Amino acid sequence: MTPTSSYSSQPPDLQEVDRLIAQIKEVRHAVGEVIFGQDQVVEDVLVTLLSGGHALLVGLPGLAKTRLAHTLGTVFGLDNKRVQFTPDLMPSDILGSEVLEEGSDGTRRFRFLEGPVFCQLLLADEINRASPRTQSALLQAMQEHNVSVAGQSLPLPSPFHVLATQNPIEQEGTYPLPEAQLDRFLLQINVDYPDEAAERAILATTTGAHDVSPRPVMTARELMVAQQLVRRMPIGDSIIDAILRLVRSGRPQTTSLPEVRDLVSWGPGPRASQALALAVRARALLEGRSAPTHQDVAVLAPAVLRHRMALTFSARADGVSLDTVIDRLIGLLS
Fold it and tell me: Which positions fall inside the ChlI/MoxR AAA lid domain (predicted)?
């Protein structure tokens, strides 16, 4: 994405922006009625959906990752489906398959049975428990919003988003995601334990006779309109410069930082710049602003970069944290 293509030829008017800001405020309120103590996680997922991207939620089991996906599907009025990834899951279990049918006249023909990927919000639960072959079945769907089956290209519904949950890679029975698939996720969102007050609220609302259910606020069509508005938002030269400086400084081949050259084996590609340029616009709307700031870049940089960089073997052996390297890059913005 070049600086000139980042500008909108038809920026939205203030009434459009104000109307969307009011809708987003109601969406956050509706999600907050069901999900407690994960404000930053909710914000990052909303940024992902408003940007038209996919999110990877990383955290231990039982931290409401699946509940959040179902809640967002209801709040945004999306047709959502869930796939539980297991070691024996096959690509056809996600994409669908052809079956041979025999008609009443004795003729035979193949009929395609759509898999769960044909939806608007796909929850790929514990995605790193499936084999790399099955994980890669989502690659084309995530990037091109269509799938190829039996030589035919079939479009997916619009909008189409993947919210994938992942257990920490150190857990038994997990496989690391391929770098090409990781790059398809707009953000990697780390999910931590809730604080005591939030956990108390969880106990009060989920262990009683009546569980709180999410309520619809927007429609799929309204979400698509919001996504187009995000792309039409203006973004200043200084923000574009900050994004490019941040991303390019994370590449060992182009950086001037010795710690990056010594500690990073591969850095973020152009998709990181594109992801930041979209995500900062969406975050500005979430904060009730009509244009992004440098603070938006700094806040979103870890979620954009942490799955698009890798430390060298020696850096990992020395206990170096990738977040420490990213914090150093963010320091270049000030």
Answer: 263-327
Q: List Cα–Cα distances, 74 to 30, 43, 80, 233, 244, in angstroms.
A: 10, 17, 8, 27, 36
* Length, in residues, of the chain: 334
Distance of alpha carbon 172 from alpha carbon 163, whole angstroms:
22
Do the bridges between strand 96-102 and strand 187-190 make them parallel or antiparallel, or are there none, so unpaired? unpaired
C-beta atoms surrounding 49 within 10 Å: 24
List C-alpha distances in Å: 279 to 26, 122, 303: 20, 20, 10
Residue with the two structure tokens 């409401």: 64
In angstroms, the first-to-last Cα distance of the chain is 23
| Segments making up each domain of the chain, as ranges | 12-89+117-233, 235-334
Which is it for strands 96-102 and 146-149: parallel, antiparallel or unpaired? unpaired
Place of tokens 């009546």: 210
Residues 102-157: tens digit of each pLDDT = 777 778 888 888 899 999 999 999 888 888 888 878 887 888 898 887 778 889 99
Compute, in degrees rounded to 10, the torsion defined by CA atoms 124, 186, 283, 298.
Answer: 130
Q: The tokens of 92 are what? A: 């056809």
| CATH fold of 12-89+117-233 | Rossmann fold (3.40.50)
The beta strand positions in 4-118, using DSSP E, are 55-58, 80-84, 96-102, 108-114
The reported pTM is 0.89
Q: At residue 153, what are phi and psi to the nearest 5 degrees? A: -100, 120
Which neighbouring-strand residues pair with 80?
A: 121
C-beta separation of 140 from 147 below 8 A: yes
> In angstroms, rounded to a whole number, what is the distance separating the alpha carbons of residues 194 and 100?
50
What DSSP state is assigned to residue 199?
H
Per CATH, the homologous superfamily of domain 235-334 is: Magnesium chelatase subunit I, C-Terminal domain (1.10.8.80)
pLDDT digits over 27-86, tens only?
999 998 888 888 899 999 999 999 999 999 998 877 788 888 889 999 999 999 999 998
Rg (CA), the chain: 21
